[in-house]
Fold:
Amino acid sequence: MGPCATIALLVVGMLGLSGCIENEQRRMMAERDSILAPVFKQTTPAEAAAWAADPYDADKRARGMNLLANAPFGGADAYLKMYRDRLTDSSAPVRGVACRALGLHGQPEDAPKIAALTKNEEILVRLESTRALQRLHNKAVIPALIERLDPVKESEPEIRAEAASALGQYAETGVLQALIAALGDSSLLVNTNAHQSLRTITGNDELDSDRKAWVQWAKATDKPFANRRAYVYPVFWRERRWLDYVPFMPPVPNEQASTPAGFSLEQGPSNGQGG
Structure:
């Protein structure tokens, strides 16, 4: 083979190698920019823990803690301590995620500290703390929930609706009166949740959401909670869509409905009107 032929082969080889590198770069860029990018680069538990502990970046703390809270191992003691510490974080989103995490993995004794955040000036914190109290049963939080149900004290209908739902686990006279009053709320969602909670704590399925009818029934009934039912907190759940069947797509994060931590029908009302 002459010198010219050798040079020609080297040039062709270099062009081929350059083409392979360029194709690989294009493939990597396509994966990075694709809507399926999370499939190609998953955050590891170690990375999530590092983010959650980042003292300088509140966004990373919130994202990392959220990843840990939604992981199967999110209820580990070390993580529970982190969630509890983060209830006083300087960042509102971090405090909100901490409430959510304790709602998922906490205990009834965590409820009062979460309830203290229901008065927070940040809407996100009030929403997440109120919602978290749907999953933790502790009668000490009843006043905080009733306050969040009051439209004079809580301007956000979504938060009032979450409070109306959370109160469905407490068969108490004060709760009964607050829920009946909420049937007159200007928000349909609040009305709906209050009605559902009334049905839960009384077992009365005959009355609709007419506030006057409930007032009359409560006055005429000596034992309004005699037929109370177990409270089941609301969860996220939806049918699978076509995209959910695509290979490597993460599963739909549907939750299983259950009763709050610490809840028991055997506890009965504390006001002696349970029957």
